[in-house]
Amino acid sequence: MNYTKEQTEYMVSKYERNPEINTVNALAQELEKSSKSVIGKLSREGVYQRSVYTSKSGAAPITKIDLVSLIASNLDLDNNRHLLEGLEKAPKQVLILLEEETREKSKE
After folding, report:
1. In angstroms, what CA-CA distances link 103 with 47, 64, 76, 89, 100?
2. Is the Cα dihedral 10, 16, 22, 25 positive or negative?
3. Least C-beta-crowded within 10 Å: which of 25, 28, 72, 74?
4. Does any domain span residue 84?
């Protein structure tokens, strides 16, 4: 048995109060376990929250392909997406601008 009942309860309560990777690292050091082991145990206990990647601006990331799909949808080209083939090779900022503009136009 890797963790005692007391260790598990302690880990869960400490992590629930501060669900961050720093807490995981502190628990790992304190219990002389690896961070992966602590994450695994917290996951099995149903409390571990995987950190969500965000862009530099703090927004959820979106791929170029997703942006092209949104543009196609905004232009009512859902069945003719092939007309926009190759657009995903454009710079991401250009695709973001196109998506925003086509979204505004589709609302009118």
Report:
1. 38, 16, 11, 20, 5
2. positive
3. 25
4. yes
Domain count, the chain: 2
Q: Is the CB of residue 61 less than 8 Å from the CB of residue 53?
A: yes
Residue with tokens 């991401």, as numbered in its chain: 92
**DSSP label of 82:** G
Residue 49 lies inside a defined structural domain of this protein: no
Tens place of pLDDT for every residue, the chain, 108 residues?
A: 589 999 999 999 999 999 999 999 999 999 999 999 999 999 999 999 887 777 777 777 889 999 999 999 999 887 887 889 999 999 999 999 999 999 988 777
> Which two three-digit tokens encode residue 8?
């598990």
Distance (Å, whole) CA 64 – CA 68:
6
**Dist. CA 15–CA 31, nearest whole Å:** 13
59: DSSP letter = S
How far apart, in whole angstroms, are the C-alpha atoms of residue 49 and residue 44?
11
Which range marks the domain in which residue 21 is found? 5-44
